[in-house]
Prior knowledge:
By secondary structure, the protein is an all-alpha fold. 72% of the residues lie in helices and 0% in strands.
Amino acid sequence: xxxxxxxxxxxxxxxxxxxxxxxxxxxxxxxxxxxxxxxxxxxxxxxxxxxxxxxxxxxxxxxxxxxxxxxxxxxxxxxxxxxxxxxxxxxxxxxxxxxxxxxxxxxxxxxxxxxxxxxxxxxxxxxxxxxxxxxxxxxxxxxxxxxxxxxxxxxxxxxxxxxxxxxxxxxxxxxxxxxxxxxxxxxxxxxxxxxxxxxxxxxxxxxxxxxxxxxxxxxxxxxxxxxxxxxxxxxxxxxxxxxxxxxxxxxxxxxxxxxxxx
Length: 262
């Protein structure tokens, strides 16, 4: 009889060793595929992991710089407060108005008023909602101090202009800034925001009014002076009155009398 295993096209029998080798090769290939998948997953998620790490680092740094800035400001270390506040400006994504606000407030403490104004105006442009309340008050205070400085230098016109800008800024403060919620968001919880706003408005109105009035010297210069004709006429009346008085005294025999006031 003919062995069927030797017929053409018949599959030769597989030995156990071959089966083991085949299974091992398949396992290795599967492991390689898994490692490759894990590698690509790691590469794909790396940006997300870095972003998450950066996010956490930014949050922590914001609190750290803000705390350092406030602590230095309270200690009258305005340069240190400014340096810490500028650390908040890097990747300023969260509450972007706070970094320039803190920098501007520190500059104001150091009497760098023009630079403080620039940063606070930048902060006001970035602020939204109730965030504008405390920014407006601080900016108004800086403008008031700039007006005081101009007045001290004898520039009344510039002082009046600064006072006017500050008053406009303050009076245009939204009504929502008088709420308790706005007070809770104030940069200085111990400062009554509404009372500060009202006091600032009153001071600015008084200062602006004072600067619009000319000083006493100028008022005297502005008073009309009598003309030469008026002076001559007044002199003639005085001479005539003197003559009449002398004549009356002669007629009365030198008796005493009361002169009429002129």
